[in-house]
Protein backbone atom coordinates (compact mmCIF):
# COMPACT_ATOMS: atom_id res chain seq x y z
CA UNK A 1 0.00 0.00 0.00
CA UNK A 2 1.19 3.41 -0.93
CA UNK A 3 0.32 5.60 2.03
CA UNK A 4 2.31 8.50 3.36
CA UNK A 5 0.54 10.85 5.73
CA UNK A 6 3.71 12.82 6.38
CA UNK A 7 3.34 14.45 2.97
CA UNK A 8 0.19 16.31 3.92
CA UNK A 9 1.79 17.89 6.98
CA UNK A 10 2.68 21.13 5.16
CA UNK A 11 -0.95 21.36 3.99
CA UNK A 12 -2.53 20.83 7.41
CA UNK A 13 -2.80 24.56 8.30
CA UNK A 14 -4.30 25.22 4.86
CA UNK A 15 -6.91 22.48 5.27
CA UNK A 16 -7.68 23.42 8.88
CA UNK A 17 -8.52 26.96 7.78
CA UNK A 18 -11.37 25.33 5.89
CA UNK A 19 -13.03 24.45 9.21
CA UNK A 20 -13.59 28.14 9.89
CA UNK A 21 -14.82 28.73 6.34
CA UNK A 22 -17.25 25.82 6.56
CA UNK A 23 -18.50 26.66 10.06
CA UNK A 24 -19.01 30.30 9.11
CA UNK A 25 -21.46 29.68 6.31
CA UNK A 26 -23.04 26.60 7.91
CA UNK A 27 -23.90 28.48 11.11
CA UNK A 28 -25.32 31.45 9.20
CA UNK A 29 -27.31 29.08 6.99
CA UNK A 30 -28.69 27.13 9.96
CA UNK A 31 -29.77 30.32 11.68
CA UNK A 32 -31.37 31.75 8.52
CA UNK A 33 -33.07 28.44 7.76
CA UNK A 34 -34.39 28.14 11.29
CA UNK A 35 -35.87 31.65 11.43
CA UNK A 36 -37.39 31.46 7.95
CA UNK A 37 -38.56 27.89 8.65
CA UNK A 38 -40.37 28.94 11.84
CA UNK A 39 -42.14 31.73 9.97
CA UNK A 40 -43.14 29.34 7.16
CA UNK A 41 -44.40 26.80 9.72
CA UNK A 42 -46.67 29.43 11.28
CA UNK A 43 -47.90 30.35 7.78
CA UNK A 44 -48.77 26.68 7.26
CA UNK A 45 -50.92 26.36 10.35
CA UNK A 46 -52.82 29.63 10.01
CA UNK A 47 -56.29 29.38 8.64
CA UNK A 48 -55.45 32.16 6.13
CA UNK A 49 -55.06 30.32 2.81
CA UNK A 50 -52.82 32.73 0.83
CA UNK A 51 -50.10 32.43 3.49
CA UNK A 52 -50.49 28.69 3.59
CA UNK A 53 -50.29 28.53 -0.22
CA UNK A 54 -47.09 30.60 -0.30
CA UNK A 55 -45.47 28.37 2.31
CA UNK A 56 -46.60 25.17 0.59
CA UNK A 57 -45.35 26.21 -2.85
CA UNK A 58 -42.07 27.36 -1.35
CA UNK A 59 -41.55 24.02 0.40
CA UNK A 60 -42.52 22.08 -2.69
CA UNK A 61 -39.96 23.89 -4.87
CA UNK A 62 -37.04 23.73 -2.48
CA UNK A 63 -37.64 20.11 -1.53
CA UNK A 64 -38.45 19.06 -5.07
CA UNK A 65 -35.23 20.14 -6.76
CA UNK A 66 -31.57 19.20 -6.10
CA UNK A 67 -29.67 21.43 -3.69
CA UNK A 68 -26.72 21.58 -6.04
CA UNK A 69 -29.00 22.92 -8.76
CA UNK A 70 -30.31 25.63 -6.43
CA UNK A 71 -26.72 26.51 -5.56
CA UNK A 72 -25.71 26.73 -9.23
CA UNK A 73 -28.72 28.84 -10.12
CA UNK A 74 -27.92 31.31 -7.37
CA UNK A 75 -24.20 31.44 -8.06
CA UNK A 76 -24.17 31.29 -11.86
CA UNK A 77 -27.57 32.55 -12.96
CA UNK A 78 -27.96 35.60 -10.70
CA UNK A 79 -25.01 37.40 -12.35
CA UNK A 80 -26.47 36.55 -15.75
CA UNK A 81 -29.95 37.80 -14.85
CA UNK A 82 -29.10 40.84 -12.75
CA UNK A 83 -25.50 41.66 -13.49
CA UNK A 84 -24.78 41.47 -9.76
CA UNK A 85 -21.56 39.56 -9.17
CA UNK A 86 -22.64 37.44 -6.25
CA UNK A 87 -19.92 36.07 -3.98
CA UNK A 88 -19.48 32.36 -3.34
CA UNK A 89 -20.15 32.93 0.36
CA UNK A 90 -23.44 34.75 -0.17
CA UNK A 91 -24.54 32.17 -2.74
CA UNK A 92 -23.79 29.38 -0.31
CA UNK A 93 -25.66 31.03 2.56
CA UNK A 94 -28.66 31.78 0.34
CA UNK A 95 -28.87 28.31 -1.17
CA UNK A 96 -28.39 26.42 2.08
CA UNK A 97 -30.49 28.80 4.17
CA UNK A 98 -33.44 28.83 1.78
CA UNK A 99 -33.23 25.08 1.25
CA UNK A 100 -32.99 24.30 4.95
CA UNK A 101 -35.97 26.55 5.71
CA UNK A 102 -38.18 24.28 3.61
CA UNK A 103 -37.22 21.19 5.63
CA UNK A 104 -37.24 23.01 8.98
CA UNK A 105 -40.72 24.40 8.32
CA UNK A 106 -42.06 20.89 7.80
CA UNK A 107 -40.40 19.66 10.98
CA UNK A 108 -41.77 22.54 13.06
CA UNK A 109 -45.24 22.26 11.53
CA UNK A 110 -45.35 18.58 12.43
CA UNK A 111 -44.12 19.44 15.92
CA UNK A 112 -46.87 21.99 16.47
CA UNK A 113 -49.53 19.61 15.16
CA UNK A 114 -48.27 16.89 17.50
CA UNK A 115 -48.87 18.97 20.63
CA UNK A 116 -52.01 17.65 22.32
CA UNK A 117 -55.09 19.59 21.27
CA UNK A 118 -56.05 19.70 24.94
CA UNK A 119 -53.20 22.15 25.55
CA UNK A 120 -54.79 24.66 23.19
CA UNK A 121 -58.18 24.12 24.82
CA UNK A 122 -56.82 24.53 28.32
CA UNK A 123 -55.11 27.78 27.31
CA UNK A 124 -58.24 29.05 25.56
CA UNK A 125 -60.43 28.15 28.51
CA UNK A 126 -58.20 30.29 30.72
CA UNK A 127 -58.56 33.23 28.33
CA UNK A 128 -54.91 33.16 27.20
CA UNK A 129 -54.38 35.21 24.00
CA UNK A 130 -53.16 33.40 20.83
CA UNK A 131 -49.67 34.92 20.88
CA UNK A 132 -48.94 34.00 24.50
CA UNK A 133 -50.43 30.57 23.94
CA UNK A 134 -48.11 29.92 20.99
CA UNK A 135 -45.03 31.38 22.68
CA UNK A 136 -45.43 29.98 26.20
CA UNK A 137 -47.48 26.81 25.79
CA UNK A 138 -47.37 25.32 22.28
CA UNK A 139 -43.92 26.16 20.84
CA UNK A 140 -41.90 25.05 23.89
CA UNK A 141 -43.60 21.67 23.76
CA UNK A 142 -43.26 21.46 19.98
CA UNK A 143 -39.53 22.26 20.05
CA UNK A 144 -38.91 19.68 22.69
CA UNK A 145 -40.55 17.01 20.55
CA UNK A 146 -38.76 17.94 17.35
CA UNK A 147 -35.29 18.54 18.74
CA UNK A 148 -33.93 15.21 17.43
CA UNK A 149 -35.35 15.91 13.96
CA UNK A 150 -33.94 19.44 13.98
CA UNK A 151 -30.51 18.20 15.03
CA UNK A 152 -30.67 15.71 12.19
CA UNK A 153 -31.40 18.53 9.75
CA UNK A 154 -28.46 20.58 11.08
CA UNK A 155 -26.16 17.57 10.77
CA UNK A 156 -27.29 16.93 7.20
CA UNK A 157 -26.69 20.56 6.37
CA UNK A 158 -23.19 20.43 7.85
CA UNK A 159 -22.27 17.42 5.72
CA UNK A 160 -23.97 18.65 2.55
CA UNK A 161 -22.06 21.89 2.95
CA UNK A 162 -19.23 20.17 1.06
CA UNK A 163 -21.26 20.88 -2.09
CA UNK A 164 -20.04 24.47 -2.03
CA UNK A 165 -16.64 23.20 -3.14
CA UNK A 166 -18.24 23.05 -6.61
CA UNK A 167 -18.55 26.84 -6.78
CA UNK A 168 -15.00 27.43 -5.66
CA UNK A 169 -15.75 28.40 -2.06
CA UNK A 170 -12.64 27.49 -0.08
CA UNK A 171 -14.29 25.24 2.48
CA UNK A 172 -12.85 22.14 4.07
CA UNK A 173 -13.69 19.91 1.11
CA UNK A 174 -12.29 22.25 -1.51
CA UNK A 175 -9.05 22.67 0.42
CA UNK A 176 -8.61 18.91 0.70
CA UNK A 177 -9.07 18.62 -3.04
CA UNK A 178 -6.52 21.35 -3.72
CA UNK A 179 -4.00 19.68 -1.43
CA UNK A 180 -4.66 16.39 -3.20
CA UNK A 181 -4.08 17.95 -6.61
CA UNK A 182 -0.83 19.54 -5.49
CA UNK A 183 0.50 16.32 -4.00
CA UNK A 184 -0.80 13.90 -6.60
CA UNK A 185 -2.08 11.91 -3.63
CA UNK A 186 -5.75 12.14 -2.82
CA UNK A 187 -6.40 9.61 -0.11
CA UNK A 188 -4.52 11.33 2.71
CA UNK A 189 -6.03 14.84 2.43
CA UNK A 190 -9.54 13.45 1.78
CA UNK A 191 -9.21 11.10 4.74
CA UNK A 192 -8.02 13.98 6.88
CA UNK A 193 -11.00 16.12 5.82
CA UNK A 194 -13.31 13.18 6.48
CA UNK A 195 -12.06 12.90 10.05
CA UNK A 196 -12.68 16.61 10.60
CA UNK A 197 -16.25 16.37 9.25
CA UNK A 198 -16.85 13.40 11.51
CA UNK A 199 -15.57 15.29 14.55
CA UNK A 200 -17.75 18.32 13.75
CA UNK A 201 -20.86 16.18 13.33
CA UNK A 202 -20.09 14.26 16.53
CA UNK A 203 -19.74 17.50 18.49
CA UNK A 204 -23.07 18.67 17.06
CA UNK A 205 -24.68 15.36 18.00
CA UNK A 206 -23.37 15.53 21.56
CA UNK A 207 -24.50 19.14 21.91
CA UNK A 208 -27.97 18.09 20.71
CA UNK A 209 -28.13 15.30 23.27
CA UNK A 210 -27.10 17.68 26.01
CA UNK A 211 -29.86 20.16 25.13
CA UNK A 212 -32.34 17.29 24.89
CA UNK A 213 -31.40 16.08 28.37
CA UNK A 214 -31.79 19.57 29.76
CA UNK A 215 -35.25 19.88 28.22
CA UNK A 216 -36.34 16.48 29.49
CA UNK A 217 -36.06 17.59 33.08
CA UNK A 218 -39.81 17.97 33.21
CA UNK A 219 -40.29 14.32 32.15
CA UNK B 1 -76.76 33.67 35.61
CA UNK B 2 -76.45 31.17 32.71
CA UNK B 3 -79.29 30.90 30.27
CA UNK B 4 -79.20 28.61 27.24
CA UNK B 5 -81.90 29.09 24.67
CA UNK B 6 -82.59 26.40 22.09
CA UNK B 7 -78.95 25.40 21.56
CA UNK B 8 -78.20 23.14 18.61
CA UNK B 9 -74.86 21.82 17.45
CA UNK B 10 -74.25 20.00 14.19
CA UNK B 11 -70.97 18.28 13.29
CA UNK B 12 -71.15 17.54 9.58
CA UNK B 13 -74.34 15.51 9.25
CA UNK B 14 -74.42 14.61 12.90
CA UNK B 15 -76.84 16.65 15.01
CA UNK B 16 -75.33 16.37 18.47
CA UNK B 17 -77.53 18.89 20.28
CA UNK B 18 -81.14 19.23 19.23
CA UNK B 19 -82.36 22.39 20.87
CA UNK B 20 -81.39 22.56 24.53
CA UNK B 21 -82.79 25.25 26.80
CA UNK B 22 -82.04 25.59 30.48
CA UNK B 23 -80.96 28.03 33.15
CA UNK B 24 -78.45 27.89 35.93
CA UNK B 25 -78.86 30.34 38.80
CA UNK B 26 -76.11 32.07 40.70
CA UNK B 27 -74.49 29.67 43.18
CA UNK B 28 -76.39 26.74 41.75
CA UNK B 29 -74.75 23.34 41.24
CA UNK B 30 -76.07 21.54 38.20
CA UNK B 31 -74.99 18.07 37.12
CA UNK B 32 -75.48 16.78 33.60
CA UNK B 33 -76.04 13.05 33.28
CA UNK B 34 -76.68 10.81 30.30
CA UNK B 35 -75.30 7.98 28.20
CA UNK B 36 -72.11 8.35 26.13
CA UNK B 37 -72.68 10.32 22.99
CA UNK B 38 -75.74 12.06 24.38
CA UNK B 39 -74.16 15.50 23.89
CA UNK B 40 -73.38 16.29 27.56
CA UNK B 41 -69.80 17.36 26.96
CA UNK B 42 -70.64 19.22 23.78
CA UNK B 43 -73.29 21.22 25.63
CA UNK B 44 -70.85 22.02 28.44
CA UNK B 45 -68.22 23.10 25.91
CA UNK B 46 -70.73 25.44 24.30
CA UNK B 47 -71.01 27.31 27.59
CA UNK B 48 -67.47 28.69 27.31
CA UNK B 49 -67.50 28.69 23.51
CA UNK B 50 -64.92 25.94 23.07
CA UNK B 51 -67.66 24.75 20.73
CA UNK B 52 -69.74 27.30 18.93
CA UNK B 53 -73.41 26.45 18.90
CA UNK B 54 -74.83 26.03 15.40
CA UNK B 55 -77.89 27.96 16.50
CA UNK B 56 -79.42 29.30 19.70
CA UNK B 57 -78.27 31.82 22.25
CA UNK B 58 -76.35 31.60 25.49
CA UNK B 59 -76.52 34.41 28.02
CA UNK B 60 -74.20 34.86 30.96
CA UNK B 61 -75.23 37.55 33.41
CA UNK B 62 -77.66 38.76 30.72
CA UNK B 63 -74.89 39.23 28.17
CA UNK B 64 -75.33 37.22 25.00
CA UNK B 65 -72.00 35.40 24.57
CA UNK B 66 -73.07 33.75 21.32
CA UNK B 67 -73.23 37.15 19.65
CA UNK B 68 -70.51 37.52 16.98
CA UNK B 69 -69.44 40.85 18.49
CA UNK B 70 -68.42 39.27 21.74
CA UNK B 71 -64.74 38.81 22.64
CA UNK B 72 -64.45 35.12 23.53
CA UNK B 73 -61.28 35.65 25.54
CA UNK B 74 -63.08 38.10 27.83
CA UNK B 75 -65.96 35.68 28.39
CA UNK B 76 -63.64 32.79 29.18
CA UNK B 77 -61.78 34.71 31.87
CA UNK B 78 -64.92 34.47 33.95
CA UNK B 79 -65.53 30.75 33.36
CA UNK B 80 -63.14 28.13 34.66
CA UNK B 81 -63.00 24.71 33.06
CA UNK B 82 -61.74 21.35 34.28
CA UNK B 83 -61.15 18.63 31.70
CA UNK B 84 -61.39 14.85 31.84
CA UNK B 85 -57.73 14.53 30.85
CA UNK B 86 -56.48 17.46 32.99
CA UNK B 87 -54.47 19.15 30.23
CA UNK B 88 -51.93 20.56 32.66
CA UNK B 89 -49.03 22.32 30.96
CA UNK B 90 -46.36 19.58 31.11
CA UNK B 91 -43.36 21.91 30.96
CA UNK B 92 -44.45 23.86 34.04
CA UNK B 93 -44.46 22.85 37.70
CA UNK B 94 -47.73 22.57 39.60
CA UNK B 95 -47.28 26.08 40.98
CA UNK B 96 -46.31 27.53 37.58
CA UNK B 97 -49.42 25.96 36.06
CA UNK B 98 -51.59 27.81 38.55
CA UNK B 99 -49.61 31.07 38.29
CA UNK B 100 -49.55 31.26 34.49
CA UNK B 101 -53.00 32.65 33.66
CA UNK B 102 -53.16 35.28 36.43
CA UNK B 103 -49.86 36.66 35.16
CA UNK B 104 -50.45 36.44 31.40
CA UNK B 105 -54.15 37.14 31.28
CA UNK B 106 -54.76 39.39 34.27
CA UNK B 107 -51.32 40.98 34.25
CA UNK B 108 -50.65 40.31 37.92
CA UNK B 109 -47.08 40.48 39.16
CA UNK B 110 -45.17 37.28 39.74
CA UNK B 111 -45.39 37.85 43.48
CA UNK B 112 -49.16 38.31 43.47
CA UNK B 113 -49.64 35.28 41.23
CA UNK B 114 -47.42 33.22 43.47
CA UNK B 115 -49.50 34.18 46.49
CA UNK B 116 -52.70 33.15 44.71
CA UNK B 117 -51.06 29.95 43.46
CA UNK B 118 -49.82 28.91 46.88
CA UNK B 119 -53.17 29.61 48.53
CA UNK B 120 -55.05 27.59 45.93
CA UNK B 121 -52.64 24.67 46.01
CA UNK B 122 -53.06 24.63 49.78
CA UNK B 123 -56.82 24.62 49.32
CA UNK B 124 -56.68 21.52 47.10
CA UNK B 125 -54.14 19.86 49.42
CA UNK B 126 -51.18 20.06 47.03
CA UNK B 127 -48.78 22.30 48.92
CA UNK B 128 -46.08 19.63 49.14
CA UNK B 129 -46.14 19.15 45.35
CA UNK B 130 -45.76 22.80 44.34
CA UNK B 131 -42.48 22.20 42.55
CA UNK B 132 -43.43 18.89 40.95
CA UNK B 133 -43.93 18.61 37.21
CA UNK B 134 -47.25 17.07 36.11
CA UNK B 135 -45.73 13.76 35.06
CA UNK B 136 -44.63 13.22 38.67
CA UNK B 137 -48.23 13.52 39.89
CA UNK B 138 -50.96 10.91 40.12
CA UNK B 139 -54.17 11.42 38.19
CA UNK B 140 -56.00 12.66 41.26
CA UNK B 141 -53.22 15.09 42.06
CA UNK B 142 -53.16 16.37 38.48
CA UNK B 143 -56.87 17.00 38.57
CA UNK B 144 -56.62 18.87 41.86
CA UNK B 145 -53.90 21.10 40.36
CA UNK B 146 -56.11 21.60 37.30
CA UNK B 147 -58.96 22.74 39.55
CA UNK B 148 -56.60 25.17 41.30
CA UNK B 149 -55.42 26.45 37.91
CA UNK B 150 -58.98 27.18 36.84
CA UNK B 151 -59.81 28.85 40.17
CA UNK B 152 -56.76 31.10 39.88
CA UNK B 153 -58.64 33.30 37.42
CA UNK B 154 -61.30 33.80 40.12
CA UNK B 155 -64.12 32.82 37.78
CA UNK B 156 -67.77 33.16 38.68
CA UNK B 157 -68.61 29.88 36.99
CA UNK B 158 -66.80 26.53 36.96
CA UNK B 159 -67.41 23.88 34.31
CA UNK B 160 -66.36 20.28 34.92
CA UNK B 161 -66.17 17.86 31.99
CA UNK B 162 -66.17 14.35 33.48
CA UNK B 163 -63.45 15.32 35.96
CA UNK B 164 -63.12 11.84 37.49
CA UNK B 165 -63.66 9.62 34.44
CA UNK B 166 -59.95 9.23 33.67
CA UNK B 167 -58.95 8.49 37.26
CA UNK B 168 -58.11 5.25 38.99
CA UNK B 169 -60.95 4.38 41.34
CA UNK B 170 -59.01 5.11 44.52
CA UNK B 171 -58.35 8.67 43.37
CA UNK B 172 -61.91 9.64 42.61
CA UNK B 173 -62.74 10.61 46.16
CA UNK B 174 -59.94 13.15 46.62
CA UNK B 175 -61.14 15.05 43.56
CA UNK B 176 -64.80 14.85 44.49
CA UNK B 177 -63.94 16.10 47.98
CA UNK B 178 -62.28 19.18 46.51
CA UNK B 179 -65.33 19.77 44.33
CA UNK B 180 -67.65 19.28 47.26
CA UNK B 181 -65.66 21.90 49.16
CA UNK B 182 -66.12 24.23 46.22
CA UNK B 183 -69.91 23.82 46.23
CA UNK B 184 -69.92 25.11 49.80
CA UNK B 185 -68.30 28.38 48.74
CA UNK B 186 -71.31 29.32 46.64
CA UNK B 187 -69.56 28.78 43.30
CA UNK B 188 -71.84 28.33 40.30
CA UNK B 189 -70.95 24.92 38.92
CA UNK B 190 -71.98 22.83 35.93
CA UNK B 191 -70.69 19.27 36.13
CA UNK B 192 -70.85 16.52 33.55
CA UNK B 193 -70.36 13.33 35.50
CA UNK B 194 -70.95 9.60 35.75
CA UNK B 195 -70.67 9.71 39.56
CA UNK B 196 -74.32 9.23 40.44
CA UNK B 197 -73.87 9.33 44.20
CA UNK B 198 -71.94 12.55 43.94
CA UNK B 199 -74.60 14.04 41.68
CA UNK B 200 -77.29 13.05 44.14
CA UNK B 201 -75.39 14.52 47.04
CA UNK B 202 -74.25 17.90 45.73
CA UNK B 203 -76.54 18.86 42.89
CA UNK B 204 -79.31 21.41 43.17
CA UNK B 205 -80.55 20.23 39.82
CA UNK B 206 -79.95 17.29 37.49
CA UNK B 207 -80.13 17.52 33.71
CA UNK B 208 -80.62 14.24 31.88
CA UNK B 209 -79.56 14.30 28.24
CA UNK B 210 -80.17 11.59 25.68
CA UNK B 211 -79.35 11.80 21.98
CA UNK B 212 -78.99 15.56 22.06
CA UNK B 213 -82.30 16.18 23.82
CA UNK B 214 -82.80 17.43 27.36
CA UNK B 215 -85.23 14.82 28.69
CA UNK B 216 -85.35 15.71 32.37
CA UNK B 217 -84.54 18.73 34.45
CA UNK B 218 -85.36 18.12 38.08
CA UNK B 219 -83.97 18.18 41.58
CA UNK B 220 -81.85 15.10 42.32
CA UNK B 221 -84.18 13.27 44.73
CA UNK B 222 -86.99 13.16 42.23
CA UNK B 223 -84.66 12.24 39.40
CA UNK B 224 -82.98 9.34 41.17
CA UNK B 225 -86.08 7.91 42.84
CA UNK B 226 -88.80 8.72 40.41
CA UNK B 227 -87.61 9.75 36.93
CA UNK B 228 -90.46 10.75 34.68
CA UNK B 229 -89.16 9.37 31.38
CA UNK B 230 -88.71 5.73 30.49
CA UNK B 231 -85.31 6.49 28.99
CA UNK B 232 -84.05 7.88 32.30
CA UNK B 233 -85.51 4.92 34.16
CA UNK B 234 -83.69 2.38 32.01
CA UNK B 235 -80.48 4.43 32.18
CA UNK B 236 -80.62 4.56 35.97
CA UNK B 237 -81.36 0.84 36.21
CA UNK B 238 -78.14 0.17 34.36
CA UNK B 239 -75.87 2.53 36.25
CA UNK B 240 -77.14 2.37 39.83
UniProtKB/TrEMBL annotation, chain A:
Pfam families: BPD_transp_1. PROSITE patterns: ABC_TM1 (PS50928). The chain crosses the membrane at residues 25-45, 57-78, 84-104, 190-211. Its main location: membrane. One of its GO terms (molecular function) is transmembrane transporter activity. The keyword Cell membrane applies. It comes from the Bacteria. Gene3D superfamilies: MetI-like. SUPFAM superfamilies: MetI-like. One of its GO terms (biological process) is amino acid transport. The keyword Transmembrane helix applies. One of its GO terms (cellular component) is ATP-binding cassette (ABC) transporter complex. It is a multi-pass membrane protein. Keywords: Amino-acid transport, Cell membrane, Membrane, Transmembrane, Transmembrane helix, Transport. Residues 19-208 form the ABC transmembrane type-1 domain. It is found in: Cell membrane. Belongs to the binding-protein-dependent transport system permease family. HisMQ subfamily. This is Arginine ABC transporter permease. It comes from Oceanobacillus sojae. The lineage of its organism: Bacteria, Bacillati, Bacillota, Bacilli, Bacillales.
TrEMBL record, chain B:
This is Arginine ABC transporter ATP-binding protein. It comes from Oceanobacillus sojae. Pfam families: ABC_tran. GO terms for molecular function: ABC-type amino acid transporter activity; ATP binding; ATP hydrolysis activity. Keywords: ATP-binding, Nucleotide-binding, Transport. The keyword ATP-binding applies. SUPFAM superfamilies: P-loop containing nucleoside triphosphate hydrolases (SSF52540). CDD domains: ABC_HisP_GlnQ. Residues 2-236 form the ABC transporter domain. InterPro entries: AAA+_ATPase (IPR003593), ABC_ATPase_HisP-typ (IPR030679), ABC_transporter-like_ATP-bd (IPR003439), ABC_transporter-like_CS (IPR017871), MetN_ABC_transporter-like (IPR050086), P-loop_NTPase (IPR027417). SMART domains: AAA. The keyword Transport applies. PROSITE patterns: ABC_TRANSPORTER_1, ABC_TRANSPORTER_2.
Amino acid sequence: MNLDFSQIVPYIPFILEGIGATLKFVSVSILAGFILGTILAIFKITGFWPLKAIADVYTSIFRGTPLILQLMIIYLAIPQLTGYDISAFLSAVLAFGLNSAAYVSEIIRAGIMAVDKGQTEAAKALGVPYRSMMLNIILPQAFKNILPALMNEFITLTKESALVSTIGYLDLMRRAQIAGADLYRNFEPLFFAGVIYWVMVTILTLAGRYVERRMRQSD
Amino acid sequence: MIKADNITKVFGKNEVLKGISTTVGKGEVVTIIGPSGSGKSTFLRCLNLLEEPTSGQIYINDEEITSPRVNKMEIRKNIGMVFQHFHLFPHMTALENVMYAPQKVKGLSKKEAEQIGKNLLARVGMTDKEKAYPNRLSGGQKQRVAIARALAMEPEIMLFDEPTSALDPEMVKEVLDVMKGLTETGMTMVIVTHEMNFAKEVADKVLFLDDGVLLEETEPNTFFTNPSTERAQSFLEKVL
